[in-house]
Hints:
The two termini are 19 Å apart. It is globular, with a radius of gyration of 17 Å. Strand 3 and strand 4 form a beta hairpin. The protein has one domain: Maf protein (Alpha-Beta Complex). By secondary structure, it is an alpha/beta fold. 32% of the residues lie in helices and 26% in strands.
Amino acid sequence: xxxxxxxxxxxxxxxxxxxxxxxxxxxxxxxxxxxxxxxxxxxxxxxxxxxxxxxxxxxxxxxxxxxxxxxxxxxxxxxxxxxxxxxxxxxxxxxxxxxxxxxxxxxxxxxxxxxxxxxxxxxxxxxxxxxxxxxxxxxxxxxxxxxxxxxxxxxxxxxxxxxxxxxxxxxxxxxxxxxxxxxxxxxxxxx
Length: 191
């Protein structure tokens, strides 16, 4: 069994659907980017910090963080409806990147990677952005949207891993977990 250092319901669902056994122990850290910190260093720092803050001896811990990047600007989770609409305006008719950093921590050794997926948004009307932002879906999602829910109608195509955009590149996570220990240690038996 692994420990997931996240409260994300999407990450929990992805791990569950993949048959990976986990318990949730959310990490509470300051997610403010450091001045001039590049996006990749920022999310790697957060993923590793989350894993380290909840780790106990003998555990395998998964820390992850997902951001949206457009024109070198990091978009995290919006704090209110106005900020959500501002983010959606930036994404409308543009291509952006969704980056997820993953850290697997086991016995004080960490292995990390970043998965990047390009997402192509169609042009959005002001009404579509306002309606989506007022739905409440935006508030716990980087870039103010969830590809697996109402914002699916905004996405023309993606290049890369769909599950990365949801919040966890599950195939790469599984492969990394296999390098840490046998699958029987962290997967449920198939019938």
